[in-house]
UniProtKB/TrEMBL annotation:
Name under which the protein is recorded: HTH-type transcriptional regulator YdeE
Pfam families: GyrI-like (PF06445), HTH_18 (PF12833)
UniProt GO MF annotations: DNA-binding transcription factor activity; sequence-specific DNA binding
Keywords per UniProt: DNA-binding, Transcription, Transcription regulation
Family annotation (PROSITE patterns): HTH_ARAC_FAMILY_1, HTH_ARAC_FAMILY_2
InterPro entries cross-referenced by the UniProt entry: AraC_E-bd, GyrI-like, Homeodomain-like_sf, HTH_AraC, HTH_AraC-typ_CS, MarA-like, Reg_factor_effector_dom_sf, Tscrpt_reg_AraC-type_HTH
HTH araC/xylS-type domain span: 8-106
SMART domains tied to this protein: AraC_E_bind, HTH_ARAC
């Protein structure tokens, strides 16, 4: 299957099993992606998490059934994956702005989220600045934290981790230690298993790790290095979306499956002239 076909196969699988107890691992297998890589790709392309997509679709179908049948609300709650009618009602109101009871006699509009279909642009409106280079393996020294992929806890925890290192001086220490082949401070995700990752904030460093820091070996790779221009986080998010919606489908390259790098300079992160990079291992 092509990259686009693989992603669509996973979405189709979700739709066919919306009422089942789905797992990220099971969904990702349909696309031949790792759990983390699928979750990351999906979120970049859609701006929502896999879990949020499933919640929205289930509550959309629940609303249709609620307004077109006499099925009891308690039965709908269990059917669409909620342990109690109270939990169902709370989630339903959050999405539709009315309770299930109100929706049953409601004549206004309920919020509907349609089934996703993957569409990509094979020729982007904006040119992407990218170069392909080969690098020998190198070492990163830094700090790491383990994050769960369950309920997308990593999406909340990683920004907090950056706030902490920017506030306690760790980022300045890492910039001073930078003497390897990648200039700047890097963020790296390393998948541990189907439900967790280690996230690293570090820098390329050729000597042994100083006290309090750990080492991570980055394997020799062919890298697609993308330029990022503009303030964080918007500029970085924009280029990630271009990579997955435009560059991968049209380039002929595939993700190598080893860790990606986000590379940051010590410039003002809010500057419109900020320069950063995204390094993706490819084959």
């Amino acid at each position: 299957m092509t990259w686009v076909e693989s992603l669509q196969a996973a979405i189709d699988y979700m739709e066919e099993h919306l009422l089942d107890d789905l797992t990220i691992e099971g969904i990702a297998q349909q696309a031949n992606f790792s759990s983390f890589h699928f979750q990351r790709t999906f979120a970049i392309l859609t701006d929502i998490s896999v879990g949020e997509y499933l919640r929205r679709r289930r509550l959309t179908l629940a609303a249709y059934e609620l307004t077109k049948s006499n099925t009891k609300i308690i039965d709908l709650a269990y059917k669409y994956g909620y342990d109690t009618p109270e939990a169902f009602s709370k989630a339903f109101k959050r999405q539709h702005a009315v309770t299930p009871s109100e929706a049953r006699k409601y004549t206004g509009k309920l919020k509907s989220y349609n089934r996703l279909v993957v569409q990509v642009s094979l020729k982007g409106a904006e040119a992407m600045q990218v170069k392909i280079v080969e690098r020998e393996g190198f070492q990163i020294v830094g700090i790491k934290q383990e994050f769960s992929l369950v309920n997308e806890e990593n999406l909340v925890g990683i920004p907090k981790m950056w706030d902490e290192i920017n506030g306690d001086g760790t980022d300045e220490r890492l910039f001073q230690l930078n003497n390897g082949p990648v200039e700047g401070v890097v963020g790296v995700c390393v998948e541990k298993d189907s439900e967790s990752i280690d996230y690293w904030i570090g820098t390329a460093h050729e000597d042994s790790a100083p006290d309090g820091l750990f080492t991570l070996e980055i394997p020799a790779s062919k890298w697609a290095i993308f330029e990022v221009h503009g303030p964080m986080p918007d500029a970085m998010q924009k280029v990630w979306k271009q990579i997955f919606s435009e560059w991968f489908p049209s380039s002929g390259y595939k993700h190598a499956g080893t860790p990606e790098l986000e590379v940051y300079s010590d410039e003002d992160p809010s500057s419109p002239d900020l320069y950063s990079e995204i390094w993706i291992p490819v084959v």
